Amino acid sequence: MVPNIKPIHHRADVKSSCLALTAMHKYRALCIANINELLATERGKQTSIIKRRGLDIPKNKSLVYQVQDALKNKLRIGEPKHFAKQQGAASDGIYSWSTYENYLAKSCAFVRWAKAEYGVRALANARDYVDAYLQKHVNEGYSPYTQKLIACALAKLYECSTMDFIPTQVRHRSGITRSRKCKDSGKSKAKFSESKNQEFVDFCRATGLRRHEIKQLKPENLGYDQATGKYMLVGIKGKGGRLREAPILSDKVVERMKNTPSWSAYLEQNPITGGYSFVPS
After folding, report:
1. Is the pTM of this model over 0.70?
2. I need a labelling partner for 66 at 20 to 30 A (CA). Which of 59, 89, 236, 270 fits?
C-alpha cells in the first residue's frame, strides 16, 4: 500500500511566496531610492553652503583651485576641536568657516604672488618661496599679527609648522592698532570711551570674559569657591560650547556685582553658603 504523501508546497503557498518576494524587492528598491535622494539632498546642501560663501571651485586646475581643494579637504565643520586636541590631531583640520575663509584668502594671495614673481604653476613648487613672501611682509611693515596669520595659513596649506618658516615678528598687545582709534572717514567717528565706561572695563579685566560670554551672563553665574575663598563666574559657555569657570580677580568688582539690582535680588533669595553656588544645570 502506497502512503498518501502530502506535497510540501501547494500552489497557493508558492503564489503567496512569490508575492512576498516581489513586495520585498519593491520595498528594497524604494529604500535605496530614498537613501540616494537623501544623499543627493545632503550634497546639494553642502554645495549650496559652499557657493553661498563664495567658495565654489573653478573647473580648471589653477593655483587658486589647488589651494581651494587642499584647504577644502581639511574642513572639519561641526566636529569638536576639543576632542581633536586630546587626540593630537587638531592641526590636521579647520574647524570654523571664518578660519577657512581667512586661510583661503591669505593662501590665494600667496600663490598669485608666486605665479606673478616666479611663474609658479604648481602648488608644491610654490613652497620654496614662502620665506620670501613672509620676509616681504616684514619689510613692508605689516603688523606681527598679520605676519603670523599668513604663516599659520601657509603652514596649514603645506601641512607643516610655522617653525619651518622664517620667524615672524613677536606679537604684543600694544601693537594692535585696529579698532583702537577712530578712522578718518565720512562715517560716524564715535568711539568707545574707557573713562565713561570704567566699571565695565574693570569688570572685563577682572574676569577675562569674551564678548559672547558677557552677553549670556546671568545672576546665577556668580559663585563662591569655599576652598579658595574666591568668587567665581561659573557655568560660562565658552569657545566650542564648553562650560568653564572664570575667577573674579577684583574684590571691588565682586561688590559692584552684588550691588547690581538684578544680582542683589537674586542673592537675597539664594544666599551663598559655601562651595560652588548658582551653577546652572
Report:
1. no
2. 89
